[in-house]
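Possible race condition, two jobs.
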Amino acid sequence: MEKSQKITKEMTISEVIKKYPKTAFLFIDYGLHCISCPIAAGETIEEAAKAHRLDLEKLLEDLNKIIGK
């Protein structure tokens, strides 16, 4: 059986959205509206949380709840 994956702070926003499209709404709810812009392709979740002064642990917790992990 394949080990389940979870979203981590090192993943880029676009990587997460591509793999788990339903997370896009959560990024928007957190004020990260530029989910399809070029910055999202290279910006990690940790970098985005820091730039927007978000609680990284809470964001990761919520993202992982959405994907059921």
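Job #2 (started ~2 s after job #1):
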Amino acid sequence: MQIRRIVPDFRSADPAASREFYENVLGLETVMDLGWIRTFAAPDNPTAQINVMERDASAQVNSDVSIEVDDVDGAYAAAEQMGCEVVHLLTDEPWGVRRFFVREPNGKVLNILTHR
């Protein structure tokens, strides 16, 4: 399996309020804004990203990190085979990703996804 990017997911009561900081202090650009989540990326390296979110729109729990892979179905099958705690089932989301959430051994929730 190939990892395409790993992005920290920061919680915020107001994701839009982060725009000025990330754009002016770090030179990042807003590359996605769904209201409940805003993604900032480096203009010269679009895989260098930070997510700032209020709460996940379709999951019961927020993730700590998002990891884009080339085979989300394979990762899901491996997690199930290992008996990992899946906290958000494999789902095709309306914003164009296929993803699931799994709790890793230290208790962190990973959002494992691929773009469709």
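The two ends are 17 Å apart (CA to CA).
Logs attached separately.
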